[in-house]
Amino acid sequence: MLSIGIVGLPNVGKSTLFNALTRSKQADAQNYPFCTIDPNVGVVEVPDVRLQKLAQVSNSKKIIPTAIEFVDIAGLVKGASEGQGLGNKFLSHIREVDAIVQVVREFSDNNIIHVNNKIDPKGDSEVINLELILADLETVKKRLGNLKKDAKGAAAKGMQTQIDLLEKIKTQLESEKFANTLEFTEDELLIVKDLHLLTMKPMMYVVNIDEGIRSKEKGISDNGIPQIDISAKLEAELADLSPEEASEYLKELGIEQSGLDKLIVAGYKLLNLVTFLTSGEPETRAWTVKAGSKAPEAAGVIHTDFIKGFVKADVCDWQDFVAFNGWSGIKTSGKLRLEGKDYVVNDGDVIYFHVAT
What we know:
Layout: E1 3-7, H1 14-21, E2 40-45, H2 49-58, E3 63-64, E4 67-72, H3 87-95, E5 99-105, H4 121-150, H5 155-174, H6 186-193, E6 203-208, E7 227-230, H7 232-239, H8 243-253, H9 259-270, E8 273-279, E9 284-290, H10 295-302, H11 305-309, E10 310-317, H12 318-323, H13 327-330, E11 337-339, E12 349-355
Parallel strand pairs: 1-4, 1-5, 3-9, 5-6, 6-7
Antiparallel strand pairs: 2-4, 8-9, 10-11, 10-12
């Protein structure tokens, strides 16, 4: 399961947002720095209106949505890369997630103390980003030192490629730029992956705004990192309501999407994911794969043996599947396609895999 780490300075609303998204009270959300000591983990079902419609035409006994894991990581502060606050322990927690959601504070509340005593979303992000860069710089320097120490005699030639690559990354980090803004070859990416760099992870900003007020920040960063506005306070209110009540409340406020829905959509885009669907009487289910995945890879998400045994796949668009009343109707509609091993899975495909056993 893919995981997204929620990070930011203390008291920017990370734990409030986490509790709302996961509909839980497990993350301590008190008004003092470092109230989250160990990371809290919550699994969130991905909202998908397609599942209910598919299940109706297939008379499915159950519906299984896909899910994302959210990890609430304690607040970082200036100097975290050198052990300040709760320091390196929490930088290591960030290394374990697939993507980073950085929460910055724009909401105003005199009862909640900002660690820097001022509301400055861009400044918040600069502090966090610098700590991620400094942590990576330490990692790269350490690896470089070890390589140069071992690069002697016949071994030196084989290590030079790695040394050159690390020097390139080191220069980038020293310029206070993320490593993922560099271009890498496929071979270089294999080396970089082994470093587990924080600044190689996909990241987006969540601007925690006052309820009903749009963010004044049009661009938290200049390096193209996406951002969305969410009111953690509003999300907390919605979490205490039933789905029907929450939907009605959003309509009254003139809001089309909940923060959770916005974050899920943005998170899928950030991680470059698509969802394909399977549907039948036993169950209708959503499955997640990387965009560009071919049919055997998608089959392997269901069961690893399906990759080797893949023969072919029946594929149609989910809307056609509903319009023609499921498999029985789609087979005679002309909308069903028979695809082979080179087929690239699209978001919203309904697929039945034929597998040799």
